[in-house]
């Protein structure tokens, strides 16, 4: 995908038997903002790789990415899905988010919804803005979640759990809730989840062999096995 004056507005469905890679052109920052349902729908029996794409908020109650079976591998992407959340994974889907910022917002919808599917989140920032009564990541029965070296953050009107997933495996990560929109963790809590100076997420993660060598913007990570590292998608 190329960087254009106006965002891409097409919605894409990847059906069974297809393998698709959606990549940003070198040195460009394309934006994808569908107004008709999910930006990307992945069905059973398909595989999708998504790399360095910014999915902007659309006027839709659907999640930005909908995995109904199939596999999705997301790297160095930004997924904004305020109304319908960033991701829903169902029907045996397998999803891996790495070096990715995924954000949701709005009462009653989690940023990530998982049901009868498995989601792996590594070196990513998952956030909700001004929510009421909903966790950032929510699992229905059969939902499996593994989180490492990540930030799951909630700016909320009321106290809720950041993750509601039975048996979730969360390591070397920060799960945090703030009731003060002025608390400075991120550049702009409603829109930009790159880390701000003075954030509390330094040395939370642990870089190990096989982890990404760079962050969402291409900044270097430690690359020494066992080294302390900044949690989340961004190394400020």
Task: Provide keyphrases for this structure.
mainly beta; 7-stranded parallel sheet; 25 strands
Describe the structure.
The structure is a single chain. The chain has 236 residues and is an all-beta fold. The chain has a single domain (12-229), classed as Pectate Lyase C-like. It has strands spanning 12-14, 19-23, 31-32, 40-43, 47-51, 54-55, 65-68, 71-75, 78-80, 87-90, 94-98, 101-105, 112-115, 118-122, 125-131, 137-139, 144-148, 151-156, 163-164, 169-171, 174-178, 186-188, 192-195, 205-207, 227-229. A hairpin with a 3-residue loop joins strand 22 (186-188) and strand 23 (192-195). The radius of gyration is 16 Å and the shape is globular. The protein starts with 11 loop residues before the first strand and ends in a 7-residue tail after the last strand.
Span from first to last CA? 26 Å
**Shape annotation:** globular
Structural class: mainly beta
CATH architecture: 3 Solenoid
Number of helices: 0
Number of β-strand runs: 25
Point out poorly predicted stretches: none
Mean pLDDT: 91
If you compute it from the alpha carbons, what radius of gyration comes out, rounded to the nearest whole angstrom? 16 Å
Helical percentage: under 10%
- The amount of beta strand, in percent, is 35-45%
CATH topology: Pectate Lyase C-like
The structural domain count equals 1
Strand arrangement within the widest β-sheet reads 1-4-7-10-13-16-19
Main pleated sheet: 7 strands, parallel
CATH class: Mainly Beta
